[in-house]
């Protein structure tokens, strides 16, 4: 089982964006789409969820080390942001081997 840990940067973003603390973990666990970001070198998990009073597509950037998943940042995607990043080649589809994640 992979342990999920929040990076310091993510903790800061949660406070600045007023995002509920459990939301990044939920996005990662429920994500149906995963990408590799060629610019940052991180992986991206996408899921639709309720944020700021409406349903939004949200992303969480993460890295994997040994048996640990480190969630790095989270934010809602702007319209067409996903499409543009895929079309430009920045985000490459990634077949994630879903590991059982723990706290």
Written overview of the protein:
The protein has 3 helices and 7 strands; from the N terminus they run E-H-H-E-E-E-E-H-E-E. It has 103 residues and is α/β, with parallel strands linked by helices. The protein has a single domain (2-91), classed as YaeB-like fold, CATH 3.30.2310. A 7-stranded mixed sheet has the order 6-2-3-4-5-1-7. It is globular, with a radius of gyration of 13 Å.
Task: Assess the beta-strand content as a share of residues.
Answer: 35-45%
Task: Report the total helices.
Answer: 3
Q: What is the CATH class name?
A: Alpha Beta
Give the biggest beta sheet: 7 strands, mixed
How many domains? The number is 1
- SSE topology string: EHHEEEEHEE
What class, by secondary structure content? alpha/beta
Helicity, in percent?
Answer: 10-25%
Mean pLDDT: 91
Oligomer: single chain
Q: What coarse outline follows from CA principal-axis ratios?
A: globular
CATH topology (fold) name: YaeB-like fold
What is the topology?
Elements (H helix, E strand, L loop, with lengths): L1 E5 L1 H10 L5 H8 L2 E5 L5 E9 L2 E12 L2 E9 L4 H7 L3 E3 L7 E2 L1
Write a concise keyword list for the protein shown above.
single chain, 3 helices, YaeB-like fold, 7 strands, alpha/beta, 103 residues
Characterize this entry briefly.
The chain has 3 helices and 7 strands; from the N terminus they run E-H-H-E-E-E-E-H-E-E.
């Amino acid at each position: 089982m992979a342990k999920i840990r929040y990076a310091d940067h993510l903790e800061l973003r949660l406070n600045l964006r007023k995002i509920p603390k459990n939301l990044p973990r939920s996005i990662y666990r429920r994500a149906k789409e995963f990408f590799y970001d060629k610019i940052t070198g991180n992986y991206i998990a996408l899921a639709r969820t309720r944020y700021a009073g409406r349903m939004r597509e949200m992303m969480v950037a993460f890295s994997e080390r040994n048996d640990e998943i480190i969630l790095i940042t989270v934010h809602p995607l702007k319209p067409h942001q996903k499409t543009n990043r895929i079309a430009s080649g920045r985000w490459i589809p990634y077949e994630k081997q879903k590991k059982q994640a723990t706290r």
